[in-house]
Amino acid sequence: MGADTKQSDDIAQARVAASGVALLRDRLASGALDAITLVEAYISRIETREPEVGAWAWFDPEFVRAQARTLDAHRRAGRPLGRLHGLPVGLKDVIDTARIPTTNGCTRDAGRVPLRDAFVVERLKKEGAIIMGKTVTTELAFMHPGKTANPHNLAHTPGGSSQGSAAAVADGMVPLAIGTQTGGSIIRPASYCGVTGYKPTFGAIPRRGILTQSPSLDTVGVFASDPAGAAMLAEVLFGYDAEDTATHPEPAPALFAAATSKPPLKPLFGFVRPPGWEDADPQLRDAFDELIKALGDRAFELPLPAIFDTAAEHRKLINFAEMSYHYYPYWRDAADQLGKVTRDAIQQGNATLARDYLSACDMPKLLNAVLDEMMTRCDAILCPAATGPAPKGLDTTGDPIFNGLWTLCGTPCVSLPLLTSNEGLPMGVQLIGGRYNDARLIRTAQWLFDWADGASE
Questions:
Q1: What is the bridge-based pairing of β-strands 380-384 and 176-181?
Q2: How far apart are CA 356 and CA 360, in angstroms?
Q3: Which end of the chain is more exposed for a tag (fewer CB within 10 A), N or C?
Q4: pTM, whole model, 2 decimals?
Q5: Rounded-to-integer distance, Cα 368 and Cα 307, Å
């Protein structure tokens, strides 16, 4: 019991150290805090906790220090500063980094060193961020677990596939991190690890230079301690890239300004019991009943039409069919080196009929027509981010049943660390917004985050 209590205290202290990203940014910009001083604190934390948590696939403290010294010299010379000047960011190990290993969590890509940065890495460097290192991913960003443990209890999973990014932020090893979601790989690990996870509208952040699993679903997202921090990072990543046909040449929303502004009216939440609700952990269901009751007239039950009941199967069919195509080289060259869960998914994709795939690809249009109408009745849909607290054991990444529906529809989602299980493990509250209404969702998420903390009126 004593060891568990100490671990909880350590996590709480780490969360405090990781909070206030805007304050860190402002102090770095003014010179009140040097980048080298900041990164030394994070390096010390990593050196202390990494042997237990295992969040990093590649980490070189001298590389981090070199970036910090360069940025400090840049500021002292009076040169213009980027929007993320001096802030360390962790990158999921499916995101290409020039001359830094990107191994996609699999044996076949061990030793792989790209020659070109991914779009998001180019943006980070342009805005003065520090590349802290590469965080652990599951095998090929699917469901075969990596080495990472949940910082809140090392015997429990951190989720997947962006497990290292979520765990690193949760443990105070880095204030910000980037991940990807094809099923539930931002929202679920954020829920399990007790941080804010933000998956933007599909196509908002270009994916060039990131491992392709399912181009109809793959979405880049971010982790932070609160919605404002997530907004600050995501805002600089939004954009258009001609190499990613899911992106559009239009202005990025002012996410951080939205997160730090007061809503004109208190938000209204539509509480949804998604497919799979009956199988959720009873304490999760009880916690949501209490949350809805506490929100009073700011929340109402919003029934989800029956058309959504088969969404999970349609998402999986699309995922596996596209995965079998894009992962064919891994299947062809080293199938015996892949984990069983990965092999099984590829095999299912290989057996998918074209008519079934094309039919599944039509589903988001139907679902979004219904969602668009539902979103006129509330500021955000509210539902669980996962089926309960993180499961025990590191041989699973948990169930994405409460995430895949929203990934299929391409809607923006945020997981907020507002609930706690009887065992002291986090349970996330998920908010879903209308497509392309990311700023409104972020503002609503920050309001709920502050309300839960007693700071909102």
A1: unpaired
A2: 6
A3: N
A4: 0.95
A5: 11
Decide if 365 is catalytic.
Answer: no
Which residues, 6+ apart, have CB-to-CB distance to 67 below 8 Å?
35, 39, 130, 131
Q: Which of 165, 185, 324, 415 is catalytic?
A: 185
Phi/psi region, residue 34 (left: phi>0; alpha: psi -120 to 50; beta: rest), is beta
User: What is the C-alpha R_g of the chain?
Assistant: 21
Structure confidence by residue, pLDDT tens digits, 206-242 = 999 999 999 999 999 999 999 999 999 999 999 999 9
Q: Exposed (0-12), middle (13-18) or buried (19+): which is 422, by Cβ within 10 Å?
A: exposed
Omega into 161 within 30° of 0, i.e. cis? Answer: yes
CB under 8 Å to 168, separation ≥6 — which residues? 53, 55, 56, 90, 135, 174, 177
C-alpha 393/C-alpha 186 separation (Å) is: 20
Contact 178, 220 (CB under 8 A): yes
Greatest alpha-carbon span in the chain: 61
Catalytic, 216? Answer: no
Active site residue 8: no
Q: Tokens standing for 326?
A: 């894009």
Q: What is the DSSP annotation of 300-345?
A: EE-PPPGGGGGHHHHHHHHHHHHHHHHTHHHHHHHGGGS-HHHHHH
Structure tokens at 338: 């892949």
